[in-house]
Each structure stands twice: as structure tokens, then as C-alpha cells.
Design a protein that fits this description.
Rossmann fold; globular; alpha/beta; 5-stranded mixed beta sheet
Length: about 220
């Protein structure tokens, strides 16, 4: 029986060191010409789709941002056949209208990173890579639609109903001890609940039209 190809890779940022909902899980340790990636690649099935997951800072958050081997991480995913990468980051915003707990899907970037190698090329191999469109528009639209659909799956959603869903999710995690070792106060948990509710309440718009994926377009 042919192995199901792995086309989607997920890179977890601070606080996201594993993926829930995976079945048929296996771990692969991959060496690359650029060194070792941040951790083993966790491969599993999510709703019938094979997915590869990698914790950017390693499990336990043991790698600082300036120490992350970005090239090895991407190369390792590529060797598995990954074509689309969903990279998650936990960060703040300088814009007042973007609140903690809200989800932002960027379409541009300003690279002001320090102390890392900027290219896969060099040492006799010259290449010019365009970065005018650093993010895949089609994948971004799908992600935005998926987040919206999570809220719209509720029949006749109202702010009260959405808040109740969030409270139920948080309570389940409190009850099973997932938050037992964190330093959050109940007041902070309440603010998180309200932030999540505010995000869900603001997600109602027409379903976006997915851009056409150009053949050969990779992650």
C-alpha cells in the first residue's frame, strides 16, 4: 500500500510544542546539509490528511530565536515532501486595535532579524529568489476561512453563545489539569476568554474566494 504523501507542514512557535488530534503518530529524526532541525519531526494524520509538525524552539523551549536553525527546519520538512508550511508565532502588536488573543494572518513582512544566515545558497551556488510575495495567498485565504468556519459552525451564533463555547473549552482544560502548571490567575483567564470571544464575534464576513494555486508553487 502506497504511503500517503505529506504535503502540509506545521511549525509551532512559543507555547505550541505538539499538535492535538493526530493519529498514527511517528517521529523522524532528520539530518540535513545545514545541520539538525530544532527537534524531531512528528508525523501524523489529521482528519485523514498527513501532516508534519516541528516545534521551532524544540520541545521544552530550549532554543532561543537567534539559535534556531531555520534552514535545517525547512530543509527537513522539504525532504518529507512538504509543499505548504503553516508557521505559528506568539507575538505582540504595535497596533492598538489588535488585542491579545486575536489571530492575524499576514500578507507581507519586514525582515529585521539578526544573527542568522539569510539564504540557502552561496559557497559557489548563486541564486536570486524573489520575496515580493513572501506568503502563499491561497493558503492564507484557506486559513482565514477555516478560522471563520470554526465560529460559523454554531447554529445562529450570538456573542453569548460564542462566549459559552469559549468558556466550556477553557473549563475542560482547567478540569483536566492542562493549565495546572501555568502562572495564570483566574482574572487573566477571564481576560483570555473575553479576548477569544471578541475574535470569534468579529469573524463574520463573506467566504473568501481562494486564489488559484500555480502548479509547482511550494511552501
Amino acid at each position: 500500500m502506497a504511503e500517503i504523501p505529506i504535503r502540509i507542514g506545521v511549525i509551532g512557535g512559543s507555547g505550541l510544542y505538539s499538535m492535538e488530534g493526530l493519529s498514527d503518530v511517528e517521529e523522524r529524526r532528520i539530518s540535513t546539509p545545514f545541520g539538525d532541525p530544532s527537534d524531531v519531526i512528528v508525523i501524523g494524520s489529521l482528519e485523514g490528511v498527513r501532516v508534519a509538525f516541528l516545534a521551532r524552539h524544540g520541545r521544552g523551549h530550549r532554543i532561543m530565536p537567534t539559535e534556531v536553525n531555520y534552514r535545517a527546519n525547512i530543509y527537513a520538512l522539504k525532504t518529507l515532501g512538504v509543499e505548504q508550511v503553516i508557521s505559528i508565532s506568539a507575538c505582540g502588536s504595535l497596533r492598538e486595535h489588535i488585542h491579545p488573543g486575536e489571530i492575524v494572518i499576514p500578507d507581507q513582512l519586514f525582515d529585521f532579524t539578526k544573527k542568522r544566515t539569510y539564504t540557502f545558497f552561496g559557497n559557489g551556488l548563486v541564486a536570486h529568489i524573489g520575496v515580493a510575495d513572501p506568503f502563499c495567498a491561497r493558503l492564507s485565504a484557506i486559513l482565514a476561512d477555516a478560522v471563520e468556519a470554526a465560529a460559523k459552525a454554531v447554529e445562529r451564533p450570538t456573542p453569548v453563545k460564542l462566549e459559552q463555547i469559549v468558556r466550556t473549552m477553557i473549563k475542560e482544560r482547567l478540569d483536566d489539569g492542562q493549565l495546572s502548571e501555568c502562572n495564570l490567575t483566574m482574572g487573566e483567564v477571564e481576560r483570555i476568554i473575553m479576548a477569544f470571544t471578541r475574535v470569534l464575534c468579529g469573524m463574520y464576513h463573506e467566504r473568501p474566494e481562494y486564489p488559484t494555486l500555480v502548479k509547482g508553487e511550494g511552501a
